[in-house]
Amino acid sequence: QAQLVESGGGLVQAAGSLRLSCTASGLTFYQYTMAWFRQAPGKEREFVASHVHKDGSTYYADSVKGRFTISRDIAKNTVYLQMNNPKLEDAAVYYCNAISNYGDYWGQGTQVTVSS
User: Fold this and answer.
1) CA distances from 107 to 16, 38, 47, 97 (A)
2) What's the pLDDT tens digit per position in 16-56?
3) Is 90 exposed, middle or buried (0-12, 13-18, 19+ CB in 10 A)?
4) What contacts 33, CB < 8 A, 6 or more positions away?
5) Is residue 71 a contact partner of residue 88, using CB atoms and an 8 Å limit?
6) What is the pLDDT of residues 18-29, one digit of tens each?
7) C-alpha–C-alpha distance, residues 73 and 53, integer Å
8) Beta strand 110-115 with 10-13: parallel, antiparallel or unpaired?
């Protein structure tokens, strides 16, 4: 059974930094596009960033470009989201997603709170 476990959330000051981690198990990690989504209270879940292992392509929402970086460690079956210079509007529950022709899996989410 595939499982994604996020960690690293918490309280961060605006203009600080925070790194989220998502460790996958029960799936062949390199076969999956890994992504981060987020959902703030009262809002729909939205795309943040993704990483395609096949060619190393990365994609970002316009709202986080230049501030967030997604990366993947194949040896650790882990994908990261480095959050630099977070803004108050970045506060949300962040979810990890693994998707491919073999399946579509989600983590349980990790809360990120941004203080001014």
Assistant:
1) 25, 11, 14, 7
2) 999 999 999 999 999 999 999 999 999 999 999 999 988 99
3) buried
4) 50, 51, 52, 53, 98, 99, 100
5) no
6) 999 999 999 999
7) 10
8) parallel
